[in-house]
Amino acid sequence: MACLPGKAAQSPEPKQGILGFVYLESGNRMPMKGAEQQIAKGLSTTVYIYEATRLDQVSRVGDSPFYTSIRTRLVATVHSDSTGSFSIGLAPGAYSLFTKQGDRFYANAYDAAGDIALVKVEKGKFSQAKITVNSSASY
Fold first, then answer.
1. Considering the domain boundaries, does residue 124 fall inside one?
2. Are 54 and 115 in contact (CB under 8 A)?
3. What is the radius of gyration, based on Cα positions, of the chain?
4. Lowest-pLDDT range, 2-6, 36-40, 85-89, 109-113?
5. Residue 103 lies inside a defined structural domain of this protein
6. CA distance 132 to 112
């Protein structure tokens, strides 16, 4: 199939993937009587999408949510907009989501099996993901 002059080839809309938001929480997040609760702000950043990754597949900085290396395959990256919103088409499967702070990867969630920030994508569906970057917050 040839493209018409001046017309860009259109790629088909993805059938499944991840729709998500990246939020930034910082400062004192302790509930205080008479004080308004702070609302997390959207964060414009790069989201690194890896094959499903367990704690034994990373080099972790102590017990922190920071990682110096990830020993699974990087599948894709996507940039969140100024509101923190991002979307990406992906094949069905399980993925771990990370952001970066400086030269370290960041993910502050893992399940009982040790899977880090796991999101499962099913055929024909978009999975929801919420990433909260709260390394500079106190609770």
1. yes
2. yes
3. 18
4. 2-6
5. yes
6. 19
Average pLDDT value for residue range 78-92: 97
Alpha helices in 10-94 (DSSP H): none
pTM, entire model: 0.81
DSSP secondary structure letter of residue 14: P
Question: Which residues, in sequence order, are CB contacts of 44 under 8 Å at separation 6+?
Answer: 22, 79, 80, 81, 82, 84
Domain count, the chain: 1
- Count the alpha carbons within 13 Å of 27 in the hemisphere toward its beta carbon: 6
Task: Say which range, 13-27, 31-45, 85-99, has the weakest mean pLDDT.
Answer: 31-45
Q: Which residue has the tokens 């992906």?
A: 90
Residue 116, Cβ neighbours under 10 Å: how many?
25
Tell whether 89 is covered by a domain: yes
Residue 122, both tokens: 């099913």
